[in-house]
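FW: tagging you since you asked about this chain on Friday. Here's the raw sequence from the shared folder, copied in full. Didn't touch anything.
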Amino acid sequence: MTDLPPTAPSAPGVPAPAAPEAGPSAAGVGASDGAAPPTGERYCPACGTANPSDATFCEACGTELAASVLGSGLPQASAPEPAVAVSATPQTAPAGEESPLDVGWTGAVPSAAVGGPAAEPDDTCPTCHQGRIVDGWCDRCGSPPPNPRDHFAEAPATWVAGLCDIGRRHARNEDAMSLSADEVPGSRAVIVVCDGVSMATDSHIASLAAAQAARAVLDQPFPRGAGTPEAWAATAARALTAAVTRANEAVTEAVVDDVPNPPSCTFVAAVVEDGVVVAGNVGDSRAYWLPDVDAEPARQLGQDDSFAQEQMAAGVPRAEAETGPHAHSITRWLGRDAPDDLTPHLTTLTATPGWLLVCSDGLWNYCSEAEGLRALLRESLARVGDAPADLSRALVDFANEQGGRDNITVALARLAGQGSTANDGAATGAPEEGDPIDG
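HL: got it, structure written out here
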């Protein structure tokens, strides 16, 4: 998670970032048109059951009840959507491919519903592996079933995959990701990762809203215009900027009423199109380019919006800046209280054989420099092979083994397959790392 501290000292010559006010959030979960619930009751964000006002967990399914779903006049239907729902069009996946992150998801469709024999549900408790889940609780150890948001993977193609994990220290996963890819390696992929701000309430809603909204924008192929690299770079810059704008709107729409400390998150996205990569970020979630050839340096694409980045710009060594007391204090973020300027840091490059890595600070907390991440990736390659799904899991495991003090998201794309162009690693006319591209 990322922090917005009440106060943060400034680097020499750099003004301190503005501090948001702290306070509870009244963000709506799965809000829709309809009558408000009875005052004093809480609707379960997972199953919609009404619970007493003092209930901590849903009596029907065991889901933890957040304060944001109190029946306090917020517009809700009598059966609210799952907790991960945001202001978006309901999605319906093909039978057997349903995702707990689909808006309106209520569980996988039983095979009997699509003409096959009904599968026996596995009600074994995932905590003790001995009891059974009965009425939402383990009949042996009393644990509720796990939240599907705590650990989920996406692999839209063989060359693109990601994993989002709760880590070991937090009670809730406030990271989110959204991936898409064509099957032909290097042809087209979109990777979006968002990290909820820890001081904001319901930032898990903000991060998922932002990731899904941005991917919807970036899923559209970029017009080629004049067909030159410069024209494509300008088009890509406009698309990334539009994606940030839409993501910010989605985060804002996730809040029903004005609250002192509304949901907010960071943003990083990368788009691959015919072997060319464009990446952009707001906040301190990152994209890295990790080429195979040692002669081509590994590098971070873009730069952080953070107090640590300002310290490094003022000459403070990276190791000191990124381990200080305000290392994760950010200076820009998405949300209702976001700064006016949300222009992303943009970078384009033409891929040589290598790996595109997009991650939250849950990974780079433990390995920040690009060359260190390339060495870590190579060590993982030697152990688990070159499948992006296996590698993303290995990098998440690494972060958890180091302590897992934050939520962890890792997404990878293997580039320089068919459709990629191998050259010196820089697109003609492309800006230098971290320079904005004016569309």
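FW: The radius of gyration is 22 Å.
HL: agreed, and The helical segments are 203-218, 229-253, 307-313, 318-321, 361-364, 370-384, 388-401.
FW: great, closing this out.
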